[in-house]
Design brief:
This is NAD(P)H-quinone oxidoreductase subunit 2. This protein is mainly α. The chain contains 21 helices and two strands. The protein has a domain of 175 residues.
Length: 520
């Protein structure tokens, strides 16, 4: 076999965006080695430029006629392109908010960005992985990098504790997930590619066997940990409170998006014959996540812990689209994750700014903030109201799309529960907004009274300003000008094979019904 045939079978152009991220990673390390600490102000911009170039490369990969890489181990279809774009964009915004935060913590910025790029690479590969070995390697690349990022501020005992808890629980969930996929390997007759596994299980008539059910439950346990769904959420509040804030900003968007991409590809490809079973399990997870996340968030006094439980609740909302198992359901998931990226990262940018200027993240310390910092107050208010689903912000349209897709699929009581818990969430979001805006000057907290003079010219604050304004504008207009995002979300799910089969089946059923009606 000559080199040309090997290259054509490899189809390396499919992973060009990931290749750009690898080159960016190497560039960051080389620049840091050559210039040392003098390079800190440039490394962040180099990494952001590389991630934006990767997103541009993803744009040119759209509707790729031959999306399979490495004999089907990686699928670069439109679905994976959107999720890879979400992961890369969340990493770019995270770097904007990291530069000042990492420098103030006294740790090295180059190593932080290098580990973050490694996590980004794992998330991007996980979003398109369609083979068990590729899935596991990508998952571990993302997970191990996340553990390192969580404990990156070594002098902070809370960061060390969060990293240890995350590592122990994450290792356990990985072991459970690995056992589940190893069962799939055995039951399919030694296949590792997802379509081959599905064909092997179907040909052996094992769709209702106990082994498939166990594999399904164990796989869902691993996915549930990655998307921080209850009851696999135990790590989330402690990690959110103890880890560096930019890290949890990335975990809340990039890592969660990669987990949902894995869920869609694994469930629709390998487990279509037990769809009722996995829908039942995810319904239980969605109910627990929406109820527990929103109710426990009411009692939180730390902004980061409140956002942790908010993240658990948001995962419950997104699962409604997964349970619907329709084209509209999957499109609604993608649309919500796109707008969630902007509104959640906008909120975390504001939390970072406030903690840099005051040294605290307690909700009570935000009292009267409008008097001292109108821009930060506006950004945090818009992001929290959007997370709560207040019109006409992006979060409102995202939830409407999810609930509409669920209602069309017959998930009436689940949609009603989502509406009720959304109303509950509005209470704790508006409580923070009221505290910042409505409080009288004499009711200011001590942190706000001693608030430093606002200066964006300090080292590292300009990227924070750019990130805040960009995500604020996107959160404000993404809902009103949502047609491009709707179109993108709908077009990305049209090539899911199981959905195409359902569309064909429903078309045939409707045609047969019409013929019968005409005969009568």
């Amino acid at each position: 076999m000559d080199f040309a045939n090997v290259a054509s079978q490899l189809n390396a152009g499919t992973i060009l965006p990931e290749g750009i991220v690898v080159l960016t990673f190497l560039g960051v390390l080389i620049v840091d080695l050559i210039l040392g600490r003098n390079s800190s102000r440039w490394i962040g911009y180099l990494a952001i430029a590389g991630l934006l170039a990767s997103i541009v490369a993803l744009y040119f990969e759209w509707d790729n006629a031959n999306p399979l890489f490495f004999a089907g181990a990686f699928n670069g279809d439109n679905l994976s392109i959107v999720f890879r774009g979400i992961v890369a964009l969340s990493a770019a915004v995270t770097i904007l908010m990291s530069i000042r935060y990492v420098e103030q913590s006294g740790t090295a910025l180059a190593e932080f960005i290098a580990i973050l790029l490694t996590a980004t690479l794992g998330g991007m590969f996980l979003s398109g992985a369609s083979e068990l070995v590729m899935i596991f390697v990508s998952l571990e690349t993302l997970s191990i990098s996340s553990y390192l990022l969580t404990g990156y501020t070594k002098r902070d005992p809370r960061s060390n504790e969060a990293a240890l808890k995350y590592l122990l629980i994450g290792a356990a969930s990985t072991a459970v997930f690995l056992y589940g996929v190893s069962l799939l390997y055995g039951l399919s007759g030694g296949q590792t590619e997802l379509n081959a596994i599905a064909n092997g299980i179907a040909s052996a008539n094992l769709s209702q066997s106990l082994g498939i059910v166990i594999a399904l439950v164990f796989a869902i346990a691993g996915i549930g940990f990655k998307i921080s769904a209850a009851p696999f959420h135990q790590w989330t509040p402690d990690v959110y409170e103890g880890a560096p804030t930019p890290v949890i900003a990335f975990l809340s968007v990039g890592s969660k998006a990669a987990g949902f991409a894995l869920a869609i590809r694994l469930l629709t490809t390998v487990f279509p014959l037990v769809a009722e079973e996995w829908k039942f399990v995810f319904t239980a997870l969605a109910v627990l996540s929406m109820v527990l996340g929103n109710v426990v968030a009411l009692a939180q006094t730390s902004m980061k812990r409140m956002l942790a439980y908010s993240s658990i609740a948001q995962a419950g909302f997104v699962m409604i689209g997964l349970i619907a198992d329709t084209q509209a359901g999957y499109a609604s998931m993608i649309f919500y994750l796109l707008v969630y990226l902007f509104m959640n990262l906008c909120g975390f940018t504001c939390v970072i700014l406030f903690s840099l200027r005051t040294g605290t993240d307690q909700i009570a310390e935000y009292s009267g903030l409008y008097q001292k910092d109108p821009l930060l107050t506006l950004g945090l208010s818009i992001s929290l109201l959007s997370l709560g689903g207040i019109p006409p912000l992006a979060g409102f349209f995202g939830k409407i799309y999810l609930f509409w897709a669920g209602w069309q699929a017959g998930l009436y009581w689940l949609v009603l529960l989502g509406l009720i818990t959304s109303v509950v969430s509005i209470y704790y979001y508006i409580r923070v907004v009221k505290m910042m805006v409505v409080k009288e000057p004499q009711e200011m907290s001590n942190s706000v009274k001693n608030y430093p003079a606002i200066s964006w010219n300090l080292p590292g604050f300009r990227p924070l300003q750019v990130g805040l304004i960009t995500t604020l504008i996107a959160t404000s207009i993404a809902g009103i000008l949502s047609n491009p995002l709707f179109t993108l979300a709908n077009n990305s799910v049209t090539d899911i094979p199981t959905l195409q089969a359902k569309t064909v089946d429903s078309t045939q059923v409707s045609a047969i019904s019409t013929e019968q009606a005409e005969g009568l």
